[in-house]
Design a protein that fits this description.
By secondary structure, the protein is mainly alpha-helical. It has one domain (about 1-40). It has helices at about 1-10, 35-40. The longest helix has 9 residues, at about 1-10. The N and C termini lie far apart (about 35 Å). The relative contact order is 0.20. Bound molecules: zinc ion. Zinc ion (ZN) binds near residues 20 and 38. InterPro entries: YhfH-like. This is YhfH family protein.
Length: about 40
């Protein structure tokens, strides 16, 4: 199972909103895992 996790992190996609699934450029580390839209709404 550990190998699976490592594989996952090696293929980790770009940042993605955990709420709506929108792609995020590079930011929001301070905001968590949601895009600007969800951050504003939530
Ligand atoms: Zn979002």
């Amino acid at each position: 199972m550990l190998e699976n996790v490592m594989e996952f992190y090696r293929n980790i996609p770009p940042k993605q909103c955990a709420s709506c699934g929108d792609k995020m450029e590079e930011q929001a580390e301070a905001y968590g895992t949601v895009c600007d839209n969800c951050k504003t709404n939530g």
